[in-house]
Amino acid sequence: MKQTYLNLILLIERLHRRFLDVIKAELDRLKIEDINNVQTLILYNIGTENLTIGELTVRGYYLGSNVSYNIKKLVENEYLIQERSSHDKRSFKIKLGQKGLSLIEKIDALYQKNCEQLNGLGLGDSDMQAVTKQLKQLENFWTSSIGNPMAI
């Protein structure tokens, strides 16, 4: 069981990196060079909402990335619009600009195509739900283990 557990941990990490590679390949195919794969995921997680950087950070896990730096680059490259919050003048709200909205439409089309391809391989919605349920159980286990090192 220990080796299986360790293999699973490594697989999760590889899957995340491979997924980022899929996003990068799509950006390359679209000839988009002013944004990277992590920044693209940030845009996708913002969607049509108006968020603070703190809200965005809580929502996504941007391992190895500086969210503030990425937000700055996304604003500079006109994917995001940044405005002072009307309620708290110390914080900023961010939302997608037209360029960001256009890109997430393209990424959403990629996700749809991926789902169709997975379905064609025999990995349907119920399979994905089962994997998701198990991964959430693992996430809950790790979350509970943080406060109790003996649980590990």
State the major sheet: 3 strands, antiparallel
Mean of residue pLDDT values: 89
CATH class: Mainly Alpha
Q: Helices and strands: which structural class?
A: mainly alpha
Describe the structure.
The protein is mostly helical and 152 residues long. It has one domain: Arc Repressor Mutant, subunit A (Orthogonal Bundle), CATH 1.10.10. 66% of the residues lie in helices and 8% in strands. It contains 6 helices and 3 strands, in the order ααβααββαα. The protein has helices spanning 2-29, 37-46, 53-59, 67-76, 98-120, 125-147, and strands spanning 51-52, 80-84, 92-96. Strands 1-3-2 form a 3-stranded antiparallel β-sheet. β2 and β3 (92-96) form a beta hairpin. α1 (2-29) crosses α2. The radius of gyration is 18 Å and the shape is globular. The model has no long low-confidence stretch (mean pLDDT 89).
Keywords:
Arc Repressor Mutant, subunit A; 3 strands; 152 residues; 6 helices; mainly alpha; globular; three-stranded antiparallel sheet
Compact summary:
With 152 residues, the chain is mainly alpha-helical.
